[in-house]
């Protein structure tokens, strides 16, 4: 009896305690790697934001609030406000474009649903720079879009898209609209079509049915999409560089400038922390929203 | 669609007809929605089409197409700087792919199976690269290397790209690991296999499609990545995407159209491959990014 029980017991126990220990060892290399390279480096940015520079412009560690105070300069607050405005406008436009597209594919796509979503996702994960470059050619003064608008009489010779704020927003929308389409499509796919039918049977017009039935049912997908678009749009600097002029720079361009041309690393770090702060506030707002939604759903 | 159809035996009383027309109207495809979607697809592919078209242009113009020619492709092949950048990018992608797949698969296994407090902390750390904008990760990585006194080079790009890609591999693998039946592994061990043998002979083969898909996707993402590479690369050699960035900042260069077309074609093929690898193994569904994960 004891002879038999012995080996069986250890076998059975092994997946428990020894297993946990083994899986912890599996987790460690990746986690330590990310802690060492990413978490540590993010902390370094925070430390350098209160650092100084010597006469040669090399960064020095220390405690100096000069760079943080410099952020209050109107030159910087203006750029921050503009970035926020562009990013929020991008979010709204992405929602307005992505909703009908995701709705059409999810409800009328039939057997081509997956193919159509793949046809949207695949090019979006292909080279971002080349896509943005192609988009800037499309939007240029002699590009196909303005020529088409001119021949339709919707634009005249003076109409410009490049080097305007609208051009930058158009770039951001083109760059990130897929992040709105994916969660919206997932939400609309799950949507029970009979709900829409019920709305119509209760004599709600298409508009009222949409606002009282479809939209509330997919609000979680929409908020997820808003966050997923806001995060990269706020930190982007390629769109403002290719589609905008000197008056349209965003906070990403400032950061890039401080680290490459301007060589003021503490100020660049302070700007980076400011960007992170804005994004963190956005994330917190999103988390509160989803928690509220979940609480309501449970009720 | 079957939901929209009424039983055909329904008697056509006035009320019925009314409901029926209503239902039929709901089932018809609204033309406006179809038009908006078609316009969206057109604008989505227009830039890609423009780059491709003008890469075959005989003239150095981005507005007038003047006959088919391969001169920009020839110019690219004869450009030693661009060709060496291509080699650099391929090396970076291969190393980043290998490193992040090993670390990411192990992390995914650990995260799913280790339900301790350390496990949930590791799960949080894993999310940081996904919610941090690339410019922040780029700045942070550059500062770390400079702070440690490391000269920026191809090696530093590789290290940063691995850091950034681990999370992708883990996210892709995690749901697959969670879907595995742990009893199969236990059965293998009851039949005399050690833990390692069970992992090597049972678990990893079951994960192979997802691992391959993750590897191909990471290769493409790293090859195409620009921001992180831009902040962490040395002066020479530079990855191809950084070269492209410098080129398109300073005006029209038709060679870039040719390079861009090749890169787009390459990464579109790779990403499509990553999406369909699980199907090649006879599994439905493909990658989870399609279901909005």
UniProtKB/TrEMBL annotation, chain A:
Which chain regions cross the lipid bilayer? 84-108, 115-134, 166-188, 209-233, 267-287
Q: Does the keyword Signal apply?
A: no
* Gene source species: Streptomyces albiflavescens
Q: In what way does this protein cross or attach to the membrane?
A: Multi-pass membrane protein
Name of the protein described by the UniProt record: ABC transmembrane type-1 domain-containing protein
Q: Which family does it belong to?
A: Belongs to the binding-protein-dependent transport system permease family. CysTW subfamily.
UniProt main location, coarse: membrane
Q: Which Pfam families match?
A: BPD_transp_1
Please state every residue range assigned to the domain named ABC transmembrane type-1: 80-286
Highest taxon listed in the record's lineage: Bacteria
**An individual GO BP term:** transmembrane transport
Residues forming coiled coils: none
Q: What GO cellular component is one of the record's annotations? A: plasma membrane
Compartments, record wording:
Cell membrane
TrEMBL record, chain B:
Database matches in PANTHER family: PUTRESCINE TRANSPORT SYSTEM PERMEASE PROTEIN POTI
What PROSITE patterns does its record include? ABC_TM1 (PS50928)
Q: What is the lineage of its organism?
A: Bacteria, Bacillati, Actinomycetota, Actinomycetes, Kitasatosporales
Entries under SUPFAM superfamilies matching the protein: MetI-like (SSF161098)
Alphabetic keyword roster: Cell membrane, Membrane, Transmembrane, Transmembrane helix, Transport
Region Disordered: start-end pairs:
1-24
The yes or no answer to whether the keyword Hydrolase is present is no
In terms of Pfam families, this protein maps to: BPD_transp_1 (PF00528)
GO terms for biological process? transmembrane transport
Which spans are transmembrane here?
Answer: 32-56, 92-112, 124-145, 157-177, 198-223, 256-277
Organism from which the protein derives: Streptomyces albiflavescens
Membrane-related topology note: Multi-pass membrane protein
Q: What is this protein called?
A: ABC transporter permease
């Amino acid at each position: 009896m004891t002879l038999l029980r012995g080996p069986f017991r250890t076998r059975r126990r092994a997946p428990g305690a020894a297993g946990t220990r083994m899986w912890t060892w599996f987790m460690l290399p990746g986690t330590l790697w990310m802690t060492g390279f990413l978490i540590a480096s993010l902390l370094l940015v925070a430390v350098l934001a209160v650092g100084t520079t010597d006469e040669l412009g090399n960064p020095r560690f220390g405690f100096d609030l000069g760079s943080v105070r410099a952020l209050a300069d109107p030159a910087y607050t203006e750029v921050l406000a503009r970035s926020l405005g562009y990013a929020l406008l991008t979010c709204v436009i992405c929602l307005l474009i992505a909703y009908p597209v995701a709705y059409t594919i999810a409800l009328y796509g039939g057997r081509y649903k997956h193919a159509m979503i793949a046809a949207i996702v695949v090019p979006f994960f292909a080279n971002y720079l080349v896509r943005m470059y192609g988009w800037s050619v499309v939007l240029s003064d002699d590009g196909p879009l303005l020529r088409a608008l001119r021949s339709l009489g919707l634009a005249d010779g003076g109409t410009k898209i490049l080097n305007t704020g609208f051009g930058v927003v158009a770039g951001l929308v083109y760059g990130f609209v897929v992040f709105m389409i994916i969660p919206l499509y997932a939400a609309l796919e799950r949507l029970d079509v009979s709900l829409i039918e019920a709305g119509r049977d209760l004599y709600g017009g298409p508009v009222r049915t949409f606002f009282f039935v479809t939209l509330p049912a997919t609000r979680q997908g929409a908020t997820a999409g808003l966050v997923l678009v806001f995060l990269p749009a706020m930190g982007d600097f390629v769109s403002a560089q290719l589609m905008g002029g000197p008056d349209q720079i965003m906070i990403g361009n400032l950061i890039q400038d401080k680290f490459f041309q301007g060589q003021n690393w503490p100020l660049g770090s302070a700007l980076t922390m400011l960007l992170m702060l804005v994004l963190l506030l956005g994330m917190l707002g999103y988390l509160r929203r989803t928690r509220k939604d979940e609480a309501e759903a449970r009720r | 669609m079957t939901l929209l159809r009424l039983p055909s035996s329904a008697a056509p009383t006035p009320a019925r007809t009314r409901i029926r027309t209503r239902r039929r109207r709901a089932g018809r495809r609204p033309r406006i929605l179809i038009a908006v979607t078609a316009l969206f697809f057109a604008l989505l592919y227009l830039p890609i089409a423009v780059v491709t078209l003008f890469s075959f242009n005989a003239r150095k113009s981005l507005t007038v197409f003047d006959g088919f020619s391969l001169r920009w492709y020839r110019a690219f092949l004869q450009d030693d700087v661009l060709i060496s950048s291509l080699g650099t990018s391929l090396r970076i992608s291969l190393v980043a792919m290998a490193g992040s797949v090993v670390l990411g698969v192990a992390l995914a296994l650990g995260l799913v199976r280790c339900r301790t407090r350390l496990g949930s902390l590791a799960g949080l750390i894993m999310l940081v690269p996904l919610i941090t904008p690339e410019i922040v990760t780029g700045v942070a990585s550059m500062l770390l290397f400079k702070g440690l006194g490391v000269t920026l080079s191809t090696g530093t790009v590789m290290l940063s790209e691995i850091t950034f890609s681990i999370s992708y591999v883990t996210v892709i693998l995690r749901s697959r690991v969670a879907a595995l039946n742990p009893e199969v592994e236990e059965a293998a061990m009851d039949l005399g296999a050690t833990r390692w043998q069970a992992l090597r002979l049972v678990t990893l083969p079951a994960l192979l499609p997802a691992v391959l898909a993750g590897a191909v996707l990471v290769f493409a993402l790293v090859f195409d990545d620009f921001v992180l590479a831009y902040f962490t690369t040395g002066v020479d050699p530079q990855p191809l995407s950084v070269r492209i960035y410098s080129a398109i900042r300073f005006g029209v260069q038709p060679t870039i159209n040719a390079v861009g077309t090749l890169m787009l074609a390459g990464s579109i093929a790779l990403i499509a491959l990553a999406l369909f690898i699980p199907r090649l193994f006879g599994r439905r569904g493909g990658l989870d990014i399609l279901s909005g994960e």
